Amino acid sequence: MSNMTMTSTTSAASATSTSSSHDMSSMSMGGSSNSSSCSVDMLWNWNVIDTCFLSSSWHVTTQGMFAVSCIGAALLGVSLEFLRRVSKDYEESIIRQFQRYAAAQMDSEISPFVCGAPPTYITYRASPLQQIIRAVLHLAQFAVAYITMLIAMYYNGYMIISIFLGAFLGKFLFDWGQYRIVLGQTPGPAGSNMVVEEEATKCCG
């Protein structure tokens, strides 16, 4: 009688453990089915959902998130052209500052002009603050360009097109070409006395 009781108790315990393990496996399978993983391709692709860029935290799960990601990629291209424009303007401002200083120095020093004398050159170096600003602008350009390159290495067609459009828009907005034509005073062959200098306009047009 006692043997029958122990056998039934053991069977019930094994059945309970089997059902609990089955429930746990079902829960784990259900949890894994609900979670989505990143889809990373190293070949050209047009993936939208479950795409990841740079890290797992940049995980696109909806079309709206992907649209925002494309806009961000385009803004990277725009910001790169903007930083190039700012850096170029700053370089030109340093040159103009040196030119004003050189003109003031030449005015203070009275030197007779000799026809045929070689030109006089004055060399200036940027101040430590100016050099720091130049280095910071260069660092910003390098960082934006490197991040853009890393995003493009995911070979997503939509993101690459967005980067191209951002570069086009940035060039159009921040580097509008303006040309100054200097005409020579003495007559000569056609075009021999014409010098074309390209000047980029300011950032806002």
UniProtKB/TrEMBL annotation:
Annotated membrane topology: Multi-pass membrane protein
Any one of the GO CC terms: membrane
Swiss-Prot/TrEMBL keywords: Copper, Copper transport, Ion transport, Membrane, Transmembrane, Transmembrane helix, Transport
Protein's cellular compartments: Membrane
Ranges where the record places region Disordered: 1-28
Primary localization: membrane
Bilayer-crossing regions: 61-83
Keyword Nuclease: no
Keyword hit for Zinc-finger: no
GO molecular function: copper ion transmembrane transporter activity
PANTHER family: COPPER TRANSPORT PROTEIN, SOLUTE CARRIER FAMILY 31 COPPER TRANSPORTERS
Family to which this protein belongs: Belongs to the copper transporter (Ctr) (TC 1.A.56) family. SLC31A subfamily.
Identification of the protein by name: Copper transport protein
Species assigned in the record: Aspergillus ochraceoroseus
